[in-house]
Structures are given as structure tokens and as C-alpha cells.
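Q: Trace C-alpha cell order:
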Amino acid sequence: MEIRVGLVSLGCSKNQVDAERMLYKIMEKGYSLVGDAALADVAIINTCGFIESAKQEAIETILEFAQLKKEGRIKHIIITGCLAERYKNEVIKEIPEADAVIGIGSNDSITDVIEKVCSGERVLSFEDKYKLSLTGKRVQTTLSFTSYLKIAEGCSNCCSYCAIPSIRGKYRSVPMDELVSEVKELVRNGVRELILIAQDTTRYGEDLYGEPTLHVLIGELCRIEELKWIRILYLYPERITDKILDTIATQDKVVKYIDMPIQHCNGEILKRMNRPGDEAMLRRLVHKIRRKIPEIVLRTTFITGFPGENEEQFNELADFARDMEFERLGCFPYSAEEGTKAALMDGQLDDEVKQHRADIIMEQQMMIVNNKNARFIGKTIEVVCEGYDRYGECYFGRSYMDSPEIDGKVFFTSPKRRLVPGIFVKVKITEIMDYDLIGDVVDESAQ
């Protein structure tokens, strides 16, 4: 009898890569994959457990599938990912509807888990996470021309607010030759935009080669002819070297876009976060990046309401954000996470205060983005087409300035002919709409 398997992946793109590898193993074993896990016999929920909002989303999703199982619409539920790894005892006890609860280290055994639950066995498996394969074939769940490349697993930074090291383990780089082989396979399948991810991409290689070698990896990937865009996320500011900046500046395939999670600028708060640096260092870094790469788009994230953050320190952060004029910025209220040092610190702030401060930063950022976007009116930019919006009766896509899911879009018309996803076109910008740009195709030649 055919067994249909569906998978829901929650949280970050790193989790998504894990899901894609599990899907390939499932397909290779001969199970039937379905796009909608609610229509499957076996539903796998690949959870996130990073912050409170992610945990709530994971729990709500699990409960929705528990109800589907109760109604007889699905037969089995498997829970994996960060929530299962971090709260295994609670998940096992409080969600009896789960036929399997498995940790990150058991992802390689997913087909064995499916076989066991289908035979009526409840599986609780938490294998050694350090033995998990760091590469492998994948069933791509992103658009066909865009893919993430996870260049490392785990994290060794030990920021005081973050539970990732305890969930994912210490930092482990993927060998460079394995990454190059993986990318060549992705390119053979049509990928043209590659997005490098890890908890900290700037740390890549130091555990394998004795020193950070992100710039070397990028150089190797740039040799792959069919790649058009290489985008780099999660560059930690204290480890952004001249070698990295020079590589971004000189390699044509590397889009001029840097995502660096700053989190705060006040030296005392950064020290409490167990992060180096202060406002002066960060200002110098931002000015240096803009000087070396004039067309750079800088994305960052801030945390407001960290334990002990007073009004003066928050104002320092708001002034810093205003002065630096980041093209892309996300600001989140501090979330106290069990098992972290920050959760036990004095000076915990009320949720309302934390959220209010985040709102102030984001309102300020909206004005900055509007001013920056207005400068593109009348200019022509290159855009990758992602699809067609039937309601808006226009195409949509992204420029080099926008990463999938987290940044804005470019909406545009193409009156002369139909476009297909993955084609790169020239779009003349005519309007702005919040974080998005609006325009018309002026050159439809495919690249």
C-alpha cells in the first residue's frame, strides 16, 4: 500500500535545508511525497524552538495536526527539529498524539522512523547530533532558481540570550569540496541564486582549516559558471575582515548585500549579551563597508529591552539606527529563553516596554526606507522574476537588494510578452509602496 508523506518546515532557512534533506531520503526510499501534509498518511513537523513566538507557532501547528489525526484525516505524526531537540521530555509527555519525537541527530534515520510508526510503534529517538550528515541530496522546496547553502552547523559564539549552541551543538563547518559538489548539483537542477547561511558565516572554516576561510569558499563558488547571484547572510560584525569585504567588492557574482546581526550598539549591553564591540567600533565598520562597497545594501537586526537596558541605552540604539540608515532592518523585543544566561539576569523589562521600543525603531526605519526607495524612482534595476500576481495583474520578483522572505519585492508589468519565473529582467522604477518598488520592464532579454 502506498504511504503518503508530507512535511511542514517551520522557522529559519537552516531548518528548511534539513527538511529538504529528509525529503530526499523519504523520496529515495520510495514513499510518496505530498505537498500538503494535511493530505498525507504521515505528517512530519520540522519545528523551530529558537524564541517564544517560534515555539508558539510550532505548538499550534502540532495541535492542528493532532486534531486532524483525531478526525482520522491523517494517520501518524512525527515531530522533529529544534523544539523536539530542546524540549524532548515535555513534547513526549504533553503530546501523546505524536507517534514519534526525534531529535536533530536522528534526521538521517527519518525513513526508519516512518517505517516504525507505520507498524504501530511509538519512536523516541535522540541520536548524537554531532554524527548528523552535514551535506546530502535534497528535494528543493524553494523556487527552482533559488537555493540556500548551509555551510556550517551549530554555533560556538554563546551569546547570553541564545539557546542555539545548546540545541544545535558547537560550530562545525562543512568541508569546502563537499559544498562545491553540492552547489554543482543544485546548479545542474536550475539554481542561479545561491544564498549562503549558517548561524555565523564569518566563522566558516576555522575549525577545519585553522582560520576563517569564507572568502576562499566564495571564490571557489564564483568559478561555477551558471551561478548568477551569490548572497551571504549572517556575517557577524566583529569577524568581517578586509578579505571578506574585498571578495564581495570584486566578485561580480556576489551581490552587494550584507546581512550582519548587530543586535545592539551600547557597549555595556553588548557585554551583557556576551558580544564584543561598542558603538564606536560599529560606526567605523559601517562607514568602512560603505566606503569599500558604495552600492552595498546593509541588513541588520536589533534586540530591544534586553535585561538592564535603560532609556538612555535604548535612545543610543535608536540614534545609531537613524544615523547608519540601514537599507534593511528588523527589530525584535527581547525574548527570555530557558537555559540561557540572560534569562537569569537582573533587570528584566515588561513585555510592553520591550515591544514599544521595538515599534519606535521600526517606525523610524520605515521613514528611512521610504527615503532610500524614493531615490530609485526613474532608475532601472535588474530583477529576477518570481511569479505573477493575479490580483495585482503584475509580475513580482526581487533585486539584488532583497533576500527571499525577509525583504521587500519589486512589482512590475511586462506588456510585450509573458515571463517565466527565474528570468532576469531590467525594470524601470516608477513608484514606491512601503518596502516595495513598482515599475515596468524595459528590457526583457533573458539571462
